[in-house]
Amino acid sequence: MKLLEDRIRRDGVVKEGNVLKVDRFLNHQMDIELFQEIGKEFKRRFANENVNKILTIEASGIGIACIAAESFHVPVVFAKKTQTKNIAGEVYTTQVESFTHGRIYDIIVSKEFLGKGDRVLLIDDFLANGKALEGLAQLVQDSGAELVGAGVVIEKGFQRGGDAIRAKGIHLESLAIVESMNDKTGEIVFREQ
Ligand code: G4P
Ligand code: NA
Ligand code: NA
Which ranges carry the Phosphoribosyltransferase domain (predicted)? Predict the structure, then answer.
């Protein structure tokens, strides 16, 4: 998505350790007009999928999922990250391992909000190692709902997440794929799509 790539080049900051800071428009301050264009692009790419629910994960996926949901006219459910153990029964739950933060956490979604008959689109801001998306896909599968695909704003193409998600046969649409970046020069190379 040209508009997004231009914005990443203009306002993104490449940090040491292959981290891309996009706090100026995506992860801290949020440019809602850009979000609306992103939402329309997701809608265009999943137009014929009869999505009836968007599933994301707290915290930073929620904003983008909500604006995208306006294009789909569907509700958003966000998986909660929790330490709580006594949650079996009323929720679907799975474990997510964060490489970046070096910890494992549980994610949960109430059984009330996901189940058979749902056609679910996953939305997230970043795809790095893919563990968050894999966890969400697991919850969808456990619930008996149909997973129609995953929409990601920025994929770090040099990390393993995108390939892992595609290898599972999940229809993944990443609006910008960073092939490489250089924290000395600030140069960012995007994958041709
Ligand atoms: P993953 O396996 O789910 O892809 O996540 P990973 O552990 O690699 O990354 C941990 C967190 O850091 C994720 O957010 C992910 O979105 C974010 N992240 C990874 N790489 C980058 C990057 O280059 N730039 C930015 N801005 N974020 C990145 P999270 O832990 O789910 O936290 P939250 O922010 O949603 O609360
Ligand atoms: Na994040
Ligand atoms: Na996120």
Answer: 42-160
What ipTM does the predicted assembly reach? 0.92
Residue 14 token pair: 């490449």
Distance 39 CA to ligand 2 centre (A): 18
Calculate how far, in angstroms, residue 125's C-alpha sits from the geometric centre of ligand 1: 8
Would residue 182 count as lying in a domain?
yes
The sheet carrying 91-98 orders its strands as: 91-98, 103-110, 76-82, 53-57, 119-127, 146-156, 172-181, 188-190
Q: Hey, whose CA ends up nearest to atom 27 of ligand 1? A: 126
pLDDT tens for 125-141 read: 999 999 999 999 999 99
Domain carrying residue 178? 2-77+112-190
Q: Which atom of ligand 1 is nearest to the CA of 124?
A: 16
What CATH number did the domain enclosing 69 receive?
Answer: 3.40.50.2020
